[in-house]
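The aim of this short unit is practical: by the end, you should be able to scan a pair of folded records and say something sensible about each. We start with the first protein, listed as its amino acid sequence and then its structure tokens.
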Amino acid sequence: MTVTQSMPRQRMIDIIARIAGEDGDYQTIVPGLSIHRHSSTAKLNCAAYKPSLAIIVQGAKRVVLGEETLVYGASDYLLTSIDLPVLSQVSVASPEEPYLSMAFQIDTTRIPALLDAIGHGAAKSSGSPRGMAVSKLTPDLEDAALRLLRLLDRPDDIAVLLPLVEQELLYRLVIGPHGARLRQMTTVESQPHQIGRAVAWLKEHYSRPLRIDDLASRVSMSVSSFHHHFKAITAMSPLQYQKQLRLQEARRLMLEERLDAGDAGHKVGYESQSQFSREYARHFGEPPGRDIGRVRRSLVGHLSGEAEMLSEG
């Protein structure tokens, strides 16, 4: 690692470690920016990733998307170009060197104007249409990310400088190795854009029975083309995607609203309690009652030890 690469990284470590003084996931005063600190590894947790740039400055993480596993750590970034339900796990962390990361939501509505400014041909092609990818962090992207973090210490600068830093981050991503993913997601009538519309519909209507032919027609695609491109982008079939949305929402309902398994399963669209329990256990590794009980016990123990720690899903 060269000096020009290590110095910005150390500054990023210093900023995140100072602001995230305790383990947890923190929304910051910079709109769209969150920072994360964890001093130990943990079980896989469900998560909903939105279009975003995630950078690990210390430690490592693995994300399970469908049947694929992506692993990334310091010197990598994770680019997500479409809403995706995943399982994630901090895989490298210790009290001496905690896992430290930042995530910044991408405003995809800004990309068309950026492409008009730099030319649509400037975005490099990608060998895969997948909506999530890991790549090496470049010095230019790292420098822009550091300037984003520095705004946390300069709140008076946020209103003026955030749009400029965000523009540069988007520019670096668009001209990077996975820029075509962002370009295609915002190009009307492109197949990724059509799949994005289908995903938005599924997120809003996940509890309804799913008719593939109706959804394909809704986004102006044939059933066979819709199936092919949906799986190519999300690593899941539409039914698998819907199932993950349902199971994640059911788990949230049980944890946050304290619904029992029967009510939670019914609310997200399951007519059969036994089917819900089977699919829940297959996805999360244990039946609903046992999983929720374990998570609650873990939270009680954690909060009693770190009463002032902030946490987010």
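Turning to the second protein, read its sequence before its tokens, just as you did above.
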Amino acid sequence: MTDFVLGGLSGVPAGTRPDLLAEPTLAALTSLGLLDAVGVVEIDPAISDTAATQEAYGLEAHQLVNCVLVGGRRDGEERVAAALVPASKRADVNGFVRRRLDVRKASFLPHETAVEASGMEYGGITPIGLPAAWPLLLDADAAEEPLVVIGSGVRRSKLLVPGAVLAGLPGAEVSADLAR
């Protein structure tokens, strides 16, 4: 079992606290056999946003990985991807992601669309449990981190995940060009 401690966060294996996971997240962790490989920690939902989490728990920006949903249209078809980028960087939405999706214009999904399509709470969206058809674009630096903080699908908790586990998720594509 991995030690799920990062900064001031100390988590337990996700399988021991399913109440802290969104339904799609729990289903994905279960089906992938990752309930013991991923940690979960309960937090105050008021400090769920990246900057507040970083400050409250003494974390470095590169240890917090944001999951943003990006979409665009091509020939009437909506194409969506999840971009996983450390808080120390910004996703290259109109360059790398746009080209990867093969769309003319890529943009962040609107709040309501992101919540409905993911089945997760806004501000807690995680790559674990997103629709299988969506590529998971992962920044190469995040993939190399021993442990990162990501959403759990709900605002009241965070997941502590080895970067290698993120890189091994179905549909994950690791790239050094995703973010700057």
